[in-house]
């Protein structure tokens, strides 16, 4: 009798943090792809930098907290927090080195060839440029700067998280020889970091970084001193808020208080210029209490996020992709009664290929429609000048019952969401701040309308946030419906969020944290049963991350039972694919393209009675256990075909997809002799023509060849 396999062995799992670093490596790979326009490549270098910042402020900070607390429990891959930090350190250094070699050796020379110069140092200035730079400094920069000396009466100042600073060593002009003092000045974020200066050549744009301009003129800040040396530096702090919600009398006030503390968090990373003076570095590391392993010496400008501004440089259109304009949803005519349109049948929305306008219009029309009685909506992340917020406020002022759940704990959007919550309350909306101990991550909007035949409920459900800005950049799916069953469930969701009314059962929706995990495991077990009975069985899914141990173990069991599993996972994947006798029936694709892949789709064969779901949750413990999430079924056959097409096209992608190999490496698909499929480009073209092209996925799909699955 065959021994039962233990699917929970640590060697069957990838560490979550190391998997995320591999994802950031795939982002950086886009910057190294010569087929991509030059300014687009710069954009990916910038994204890699901002991703890494957030990773350190939250994930690395959390691991450091565990080490300080003496937490010894191992993760699913069998690693302690200390072991994870050591591995992260090694992989991050390799990533940063590759990032800067890409910038210095590849992108800068290519920019030079295109007549765009980013000077590496102020020492490269011509006499004419130097004169311009010094005048610009005196007129525009000098008045804004605040030099800060450190001595017996002036302690080491608070260095703000993520701010760029310049540290200097000084000696008094009339002081004792060899007696040095330390000073620091913040590079002001209110001024542009990239300053265009005269190039002296026609058709050439030349830029100098603000910190280099300050370095050149730093002696003007310390007139009674000799400046021995000056170098830029930058720190990352622990930005993971710790909020005791049970003890907090007012969650909004508590979060406002914690946001201020974010600037005082433990320093977890120090970036300095490669050639920094050793004496200066010693002062910084002692005063910031930072260990040598957390110091990163950088071979280039610190904080490459400024390259996103370079992406938007005037001219240079041939160095960017042509801008894509989201197309209209075929079933919805702008300006017409959206409720009448939804009554004709469920409508699928695919952003950013199709415009987000119908979602904005749904709330706008509801806010002024005399027959609308109530609007209820969850908001996780919204844009800076959100038209949805304006419509909700307008609806309340028009006397409608408006209930809005604003998730104050949406990381790095806390401040923004506090502003919106106050504005909505002022307008007369009933604002809920979420449930204690849980983040509300679900995307749902409910409009209750009085009609001739009684009350009708209209619902929008989605995989992405109600953010009209990111809807142009993130791929997401949404659905409008006035299904009675879903309408009843939507009401139950909002009653659960605003009160303590937990429904005994649901019609169609599946809600985390109580019901969703069980449902996913049940759906996987059902495919296992069909496979064991000799029937066709498959699971196809798309999500941002997969790191839940129970789900991965169930997928391993399904693979061993003969269930074919094809996954599209953008970021973290703790599952190991194609491992003999464990996961040889599982393939994992990761697509990194011009848009950020964000939609979640779950497709189960179910012995031919296929079930397709979409929702807000990834297969992660936080989504299944610590968040309010909603998964909803797609039941209309026409809509099911559209969703199938989305997933099949992504599984056929051989241009932007990486395939996860059994040894944990991600490799671009070998496309020799195959028809090229770029799923994002194809969806753009299909949205323009509004006629989906059918792909024969079994001819175009690339599977892991058996001989490489070792």
Summed up, the domain count is: 4
The average pLDDT score comes to: 90
Class of the largest domain in CATH? Alpha Beta
Task: Please count the beta strands (DSSP E, at least 2 residues each).
Answer: 27
Looking at how many chains there are and whether they match, the oligomeric state comes to single chain
User: Helix/strand-derived class?
Assistant: alpha/beta
Count of runs of 4 or more consecutive helical residues: 19
| General form | globular
- Beta-strand fraction estimate: 15-25%
CATH topology of the largest domain: Endonuclease, Chain A
Classified in CATH, the superfamily of the largest domain is Endonuclease Chain A
CATH architecture of the largest domain: 2-Layer Sandwich
Helix content: 25-40%
Alpha-carbon Rg, integer: 28 Å
**First-residue to last-residue Cα separation:** 25 Å
Largest sheet report: 10 strands, mixed
> Spans with pLDDT under 50 lasting ≥5 residues?
695-710
């Amino acid at each position: 009798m065959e021994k039962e396999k233990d699917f929970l062995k640590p060697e069957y799992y990838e560490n979550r943090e190391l998997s995320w670093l591999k994802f950031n490596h795939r982002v950086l790979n886009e910057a190294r792809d010569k087929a991509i326009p030059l300014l687009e490549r710069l954009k990916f270098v910038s994204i890699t930098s901002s991703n890494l910042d957030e990773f350190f402020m939250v994930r690395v900070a959390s691991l450091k907290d565990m080490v300080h607390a003496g937490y010894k429990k191992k993760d699913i891959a069998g690693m302690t927090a200390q072991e994870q930090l050591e591995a992260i350190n090694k992989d991050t250094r390799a990533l940063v080195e590759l990032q800067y070699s890409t910038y210095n050796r590849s992108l800068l020379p290519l920019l030079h060839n295109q007549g765009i110069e980013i000077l590496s140092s102020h020492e490269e200035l011509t006499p004419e440029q130097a004169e311009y730079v010094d005048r610009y400094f005196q007129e525009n920069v000098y008045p804004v700067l605040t030099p800060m000396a450190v001595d017996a009466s002036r302690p080491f100042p608070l260095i703000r998280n993520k701010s760029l600073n310049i540290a200097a060593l000084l000696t008094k002009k009339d002081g004792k020889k060899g007696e040095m003092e330390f000073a620091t000045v913040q590079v002001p974020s209110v001024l542009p970091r990239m300053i265009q200066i005269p190039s002296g050549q026609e058709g050439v744009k030349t830029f100098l970084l603000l910190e280099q301009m300050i370095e050149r003129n730093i002696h003007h800040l310390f007139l009674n001193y000799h400046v021995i040396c000056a170098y830029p530096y930058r720190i990352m702090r622990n930005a993971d808020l710790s909020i005791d919600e049970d003890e907090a009398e007012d969650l909004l006030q508590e979060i406002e208080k914690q946001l201020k503390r974010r600037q005082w968090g433990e320093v977890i990373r120090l970036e300095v210029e490669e050639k920094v003076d050793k004496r200066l570095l010693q002062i910084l590391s002692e005063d910031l209490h930072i260990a040598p392993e957390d110091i990163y010496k950088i071979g280039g400008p610190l904080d490459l996020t400024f390259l996103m501004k370079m992406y938007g440089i005037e001219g240079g259109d041939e160095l960017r992709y042509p801008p894509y304009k989201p197309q209209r949803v075929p079933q919805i005519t702008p300006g017409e009664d959206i409720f009448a349109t939804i009554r004709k049948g469920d409508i699928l929305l695919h952003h950013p290929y199709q415009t987000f306008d119908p979602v904005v219009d749904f709330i706008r029309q509801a806010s002024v429609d005399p027959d609308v009685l109530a609007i209820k909506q969850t908001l996780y992340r919204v844009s800076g000048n959100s038209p949805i917020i304006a419509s909700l406020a307008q609806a309340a002022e028009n006397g409608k019952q408006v209930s809005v759940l604003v998730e104050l704990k949406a990381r790095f959007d806390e401040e923004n969401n506090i502003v919106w919550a106050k504005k909505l309350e002022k307008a007369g909306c009933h604002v809920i701040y979420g449930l204690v101990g849980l983040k509300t991550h679900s995307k749902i909007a409910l409009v209750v309308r009085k009609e001739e035949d009684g009350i009708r409920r209209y619902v929008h459900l989605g995989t992405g946030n109600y953010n009209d800005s990111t809807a142009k950049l993130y791929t997401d799916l949404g659905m409008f419906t006035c299904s009675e069953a879903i309408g009843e469930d939507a009401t139950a969701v909002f009653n659960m969020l605003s009160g303590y009314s937990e429904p005994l059962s649901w019609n169609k929706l599946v809600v985390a944290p109580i019901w969703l995990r069980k449902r996913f495991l049940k759906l996987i077990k059902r495919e296992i049963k069909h496979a064991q009975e000799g029937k066709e069985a498959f699971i196809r899914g798309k999500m941002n991350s997969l790191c839940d141990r129970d789900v991965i173990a169930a997928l391993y069991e399904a693979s061993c039972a003969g269930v074919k599993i094809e996954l599209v996972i953008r970021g973290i994947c703790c599952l190991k694919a194609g491992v003999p006798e464990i996961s040889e029936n599982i393939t994992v694709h990761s697509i990194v393209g011009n848009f950020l892949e964000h939609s979640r789709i779950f497709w189960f064969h179910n012995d031919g009675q296929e079930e397709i779901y979409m929702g807000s949750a990834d297969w992660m413990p936080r989504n299944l256990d610590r968040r309010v999430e909603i998964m909803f079924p797609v039941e209309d056959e026409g809509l099911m075909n559209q969703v199938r097409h989305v997933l099949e096209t992504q599984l056929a992608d051989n241009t932007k997809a990486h395939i996860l190999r059994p040894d944990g490496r991600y490799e671009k698909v070998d496309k020799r002799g195959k028809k090229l499929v770029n799923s994002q480009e194809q969806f753009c073209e299909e949205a323009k023509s509004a006629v989906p092209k059918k792909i024969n996925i079994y001819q175009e799909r690339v599977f892991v060849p058996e001989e490489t699955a070792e």
